[in-house]
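Example (one chain per record):
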Amino acid sequence: MTPRPIQTSQASPPLSPSKISHRTSPSLSPSRISHAQLSFSTNIPQGSPHSSTQTPQESPRSGKQMRQRSSSSAQSTPSPGNVPLSYPPPPTQTPINATTTVEWSTGLCACHSDITNCCVTFCCPCITFGQITDIVDKGTSSCAVNGTVYAVLAIVLRCACFYSAIYRRRMRLQFNLKGSTLGDCCIHSFCEICALSQEYRELHLRGFDLGLGWQANIDRQNQAAITTPPPHESMRR
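Predicted structure:
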């Protein structure tokens, strides 16, 4: 059996540059090229990987979830305007309208400081009581009427101490003196003479002349204020 001769492929002759360009690039005019590119770009589907621009579409469910997350994050992180501010407690201050009570000028048993009034009060307490009520009521009530009422209550009903305790309370509130309503009743019940003498001395030390009455005391104070020169004029003299 005779072996077949091996056929060797003959190399094709080299092509000229003109033929190579004629075979590889077809003859297309510029108008055909632009038309082909346009048709190629329009025929490419949006989902293909060759599309240059892809617009991501958000599903309604995912958008709703994002809005819920953003709202929850906004609620969890308070804004600067909603952050509660802590201030130090204000210093304790006394109210402006608060009144401070003061002590009586003389004690309850200091009757020896005014012997004359002590004797008058011991013998006829209605006189001292009438003079006290005229000053406390600022002239709205009569000294003689109040003294007469006191005498009737003391002689007939034996309860004049409660009537005088009412004026002691009025006097305390008027001059901001220490004491209580219960204390006023107890003092006038057990020490009527000493209580009236203490009230008389208190008004006398505050500048009142109880023998003149309320109106005479006001006229005397007004006259003293008119006749007294101001301090700067006296210094010039």
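Caption: Residues 111-227 form one domain.
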